[in-house]
Amino acid sequence: MEEVKLFGAWPSPYGYRVIWALELKGVKYEYIEEDLSNKSDLLLQYNPIHKKIPVLVHNGKPISESHVILEYIEETWPGNPLLPSLEDPHGRASARFWTKFIDDKALPFAMLLMTDGEELEKAAKEVREILKILEEQGLGEKDFFGGNEIGLADLAMGLIASSFGVIEELAGVKVLNGDEFPGLCNWVKKFKENPAIKKNLPDPDQMFVYYKQKREMLINSRAALSYK
Amino acid sequence: MADVVILLDAYASVFGMRVRVALAEKGIKYEYREEDLRNKSQLLLKMNPVHKKIPVLIHNGKPVCESLIIVHYIDEVWKDKAPLLPSDPYQRAQARFWADFIDKKLYDAQKKIWTAKGEEQETAKKEFIEALKVLEGELGGKPYFMGERFGFLDIALITFYSWFHTYETLGNFSIEAECPKLISWAKRCMQKESVSKSLPDPKKVYEYILEMKKKLGVE
């Protein structure tokens, strides 16, 4: 008997990556929502090193770190593949490269949420440069980062389709526009049209409330720090 | 048709060394090209336009970047010899998790040991040893990280061993005193030719770092 549990915390994009992978593959799982300000004993037991979500627990065995979880899901449930086949190692390396790329660039995206004024301008500039690389070198002429179908790299980029618009709105910037980034905008549209993804997108209004609160709290705490 | 394999690298890079070890484990013939990181070649800029960093593996003209991604690639292409990752998905996940831990926790801490001074350096030393101790715990009583066979996770970590002399000298501490089991593991790995021939002389690394510090103005 297969037992699959996923520990997540709404609306974490890292958690959503795993949700999307499981849904795309039709894997039945139990979702457990964690309160990150009051982590459960189970979470701490399953991820003692980082104490973070997401954590996938398969038949009692825990796996942490979203990109590690995604590869595990791909290898354990090979139906509806999310990576090119073993006959295309270069394609697989490319998917891994872009997944790592977006993971390494998490800070500028976070700064869009956490800052205002000059710092926000700087963050917006950095995010624009990241999107340019994704548009020109990541996507190129393709519909998806994975090629013709959604793949692991697309799931990693998912935050651009799900939460990014809300964060832009709250920050009062518009970086992802159709003129500069026609490929990425097309990608967002196609990504959200996928039936498994469509059914599992965080609600924009709820996200707005959540991120607005977070933004206010973060900006206030940063302001307090700078007056020390 | 024979494979043409080129590695763009820099001799003191712990990331480049990982690729050298993987290629040696598989017995792959390749051309090694040393990059001057202050004057990067056109080829490097063309093959890694996103990061402009080494290592880059160029296989029959197509580039692969990021050291652990390259090691995965090598394992998948030359799959009939010396498998680097275990075959069980859960074991593979463990190997990937710990390699990610090394890149996140160990790398940042070790950098401050040779670039910082005073309290910043002390904090870095503490974090570095803590991370090594966690890894030592993960090794347990096994000869190699995944068991009886040398593989992916050993490759991810062993390359830092060539820098231990530098950390110890600049940080004024003994890693062996703190993590004796890990040093035994490292010496065991160094007995493999694929490792000993791929890692630079620790004294040369130290000299290189002293020069780097001068150029960065962090003496």
Give a nutshell description of this structure.
The complex is a heterodimer of chains A (228) and B (219). Helices cover 59% and strands 7% of the residues of chain A. Chain A has helices at residues 13-24, 41-46, 66-76, 89-104, 106-114, 117-139, 152-157, 159-162, 164-171, 182-193, 195-198, 204-226; strands at 4-8, 30-33, 55-58, 61-64.
Description:
The complex is a heterodimer of chains A (228) and B (219). Chain A is an alpha+beta fold. Chain A has helices at residues 13-24, 41-46, 66-76, 89-104, 106-114, 117-139, 152-157, 159-162, 164-171, 182-193, 195-198, 204-226, and strands spanning 4-8, 30-33, 55-58, 61-64. A four-stranded mixed beta sheet of chain A has the order 2-1-3-4, with helices on one face. In chain A, α1 (13-24) links the parallel β1 and β2 (30-33). The longest helix of chain A is centred in the middle third of the chain and has 23 residues, at 117-139. The mean pLDDT of chain A is 95. Chain B is built from eleven helices and four strands. The termini of chain B are far apart. The model of chain B has no long low-confidence stretch (mean pLDDT 96). Chain B has 219 residues and is an alpha+beta fold. In chain B, α1 runs antiparallel to α6 and α4 (89-115) runs antiparallel to α5. In chain B, strands 2-1-3-4 form a four-stranded mixed beta sheet, with helices on one face. In chain B, 58% of the residues lie in helices and 8% in strands. The chains are: A alpha+beta (228), B alpha+beta (219). The A-B interface holds A 49, 58, 61, 63-65, 67-69, 71-72, 75-76, 86, 89-90, 92-93, 96-97, 100-101, 133, 137 and B 49-50, 59, 62, 64-66, 69-70, 72-73, 76-77, 79, 89-90, 92-93, 96-97, 100-101, 134.
